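hi support,

uploading two proteins for the ticket. first:
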Amino acid sequence: MSDIDDPRLTASGLLMEAHDGLVRKLLPGLAAHGLARPDFNVLIRLARSPGGRLRMSDLAAQTALSTSGITRVVDRLEARGFADRESRPDDRRSTYAVVTAEGRKVLERFLPDHLAEIDRWLTGLLTPEQLDALLEALRTVRDEVFPEATSH
C-alpha cells in the first residue's frame, strides 16, 4: 500500500469533510436566528457552564479565540443583551462573561430547531451504539488535540 492509500488519510479526510458538511448545513439556522457561529459558540458555552459564567481567559481558550477575538464576541453579545461582564470580589484580576436571561431566551427559541437539524444531519443517521462510539472517539481526539476546550 502506498502512502496515498493510507487509511489515516481517509480518517482525517472524512472527519474534515463531515465537519465542513455539518457546518454548511447548520449555519443557515444560526443566521436565521441572528447568530454568527462564534456568538453561538460563546453563548452555548456560557449557558452550559456552572452559574452561566466563565472567565474571559477560559472562554477564549475554550473557543480557540484570541483575547481580542473573545472581547469582540462578548462585546457583540453584550450589545444585544445576551451576555454581561462581571468582576468577582474574590478574583479581582479576572473578568467573567455571564449569559443573561435574554441570552437564555434566545437559546430556548433557537435550540429546538437546531437540535432537529443536528438530528437530521448527524445523530439521527447513527444507531445508538454508533453515536456512543462516535462520542467516545471524538472526546478522545478532542482531549488530546484541544484540551483547553474542557478546562475551567
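and the second one:
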Amino acid sequence: MEKNKVINFQNHPKKELHLTGYLSLPLRVGERAWIISNSGIHPTSEVEKIWEVSESGILFETKNIIYRLDYTAANAKTGVICA
C-alpha cells in the first residue's frame, strides 16, 4: 500500500484483518473474495466497498471485516487484482 495514503479505521466497529497473499479471482463489490495465503484459502462474505488498490496490496470491506491484503509474489503471475 502507498505510505502517503492513510485510512484510519480505529473508531470503526468492524474488525480489521491484515493478510499476506493474493486474490484467486477478481475482486468485485457484491461478491465474495477468495484470498490465498500460506495458511490456505480464505473466502470472505460479500464485498461492500473497495477502499484502495495498489500494486502492493488492496484494502476492502465486507459486512463484518475490513481486509488489508499485502500481495505476495504469486500475484504478479496471475495478475488478478479487481474488476
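thanks. also noticed: The helical segments are 74-78.
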